Structure formats: structure tokens, C-alpha cells
Amino acid sequence: MLERIREYSEKGSEHQLLVAGYMTGQLDNAKLSGSIAKHIIKDHKDNHKVLAVYMKSFMPLCIVEAHTMLIKDTPMDVSYERFDGSVRKYARLEKYFESTEEAEEMYSLLMEIYKGISKRSIDFSPCIFPWNSEKLERSDIVERLAYIASALRDNDKIDETAALIPQIDGGRGTVLELLLAQPETDIQRRILTAEVCDKEEYTRRSAFKIIPV
Length: 213
Description:
Layout: H1 2-11, H2 14-24, H3 30-43, H4 48-54, H5 62-71, H6 100-115, E1 121-124, E2 134-137, H7 138-152, H8 155-162, H9 172-180, H10 186-195, H11 201-210
Antiparallel strand pairs: 1-2
């Protein structure tokens, strides 16, 4: 299947590629769909419609994965928000990437895509089929950037991505806890302090919970 979609990517029409992307999103095999999406995102980084169709298959549920990692090995007899920020935890690189080099490449590519989107969301409706719609959202890209920055344990990338937390529509508190628990740079400390005043209540509580005292 991957080879057929790569063929569409190189020689087929945009519509063929979009239909293939829709079908990719229906696969039960997240590893296969993620691999397909990764290749197409690399090949079509400037085509927002193609990105809108394939992005959801790349690093699916990365924020759920991050949240699960944060609360792992924490006593179950406490509240749902069990991560207290007393230690910094890092996302698992091997969940979505074969190597550090691949993660670095995708981080740079996603940041380039992010900078090429001038508004919070680019909507395509209808898309592929008369009843289907797709959208490319800054929020989705920032979530993936945050996961990769954490997985790489790279404070420069963490600084860069943490500044984009306000662009996230949901899961903002999890990203804040992932990137800013035990802040290691002045930029991280400044952003964490500012997030205490975030418009989203859960994010404010997350910031207050992990801010050093």
C-alpha cells in the first residue's frame, strides 16, 4: 500500500493522493498509516490540502500518549491529575520515530509548515467527497512539535515550542506539563509563569501546580 501511495505522490493526480489519504486515515494499523503520512508530508509540505488530509494520521493521539506517560507509575489513589511536576518526564521518541535524525528532520519540517500557515485553521469543505471536510490546524502541528521537542530532550526546541502553547486548542495543560515541568531555561521559566494567567482553566491549574516555589 505504501508503494502505491508513493506512486500517486510522484505521478498521480492530487485527487488520487487525497483519496489515498482518506483511506489511510481509516486503517486500523497506526504504525502503517503513520509511516504513509510521514512520507507524504515530506513530499508535499507546501500543499495545505494534502497536509490537511494526512496530518491526522501522522503521530496520532500524541497528546494522549504524552498524558499517559506523564501519569505512569503514579499512585492510583490520588486525583486524575496525578502528575505533580516534581520531575521532568520526556516523551518516547521510539513511539513514532526510527531514529533521532528522523525526529530532527520532522521537527524542522513541521516548524516550516507551521510558519507557512497564516491563521489558526485552513478549512477545506467539501474535500475529496461532497460530504467530507478537512482542515489543517496550527494546534495539531504545535502538539506534534511539542512531543518531538520533548522526545529529543532539546531545550532550544522546547523553548521554541513552549512559546507556541497558546496556539493549542485542546490538551494545552498536558503540553505545558510535558515541556515546562522543572523548567531549565529562563525562557521556560518565563513562559510557565505567564501560563498561570492562561485563559483556559485547566492550563492555569497545570501551570500553578508545576511552577517552582
